[in-house]
Amino acid sequence: MSEIYATDQEKLAVAIAEARRGADEGGIPIGAALFDGEGRLLGSGHNRRVQDDDASMHAETDAFRNAGRQRSYRNATMVTTLSPCWYCSGLVRQFGIGRLVVGEDRSFFGGQDWVAEHGTELVVLEDEGLIEMMGAFIRDNPEVWNEDIGEDDTAPD
């Protein structure tokens, strides 16, 4: 029988462990996990853009792929350590994921409100440890961070 993650904090802990794994691999410290309606973990993952040299391998994408094919996502919960970018917000919207839990949205604010406007329940936890972790990463790795969020600092003014 699979473990049940009953609270948003328990679910977030899975995503945080993934974010740390990504940082330990030399990547961007963002993690995510997808849970079914009962709180069973379907799949988890972390941002692997640097490690895999793959611009599409965001944390939510990795967790979604690792969850495998599901008949429906309506009762699923996507938990992510950071507000999802527009790409990952599109994934949540496209597959009708019913609930989105965001660890923090101070370091980056993506498309979470857009997802909520289209029926996904949104919970933002503002975890101080995640805010500190992302703040340090952004400060220490501005080029990698800007690449991840699609900011092109090489474009002419």
From TrEMBL:
Domain CMP/dCMP-type deaminase: 6-122
UniProt name for this protein: tRNA-specific adenosine deaminase
Cross-referenced CDD domains: nucleoside_deaminase
Pfam families the UniProt entry points to: dCMP_cyt_deam_1
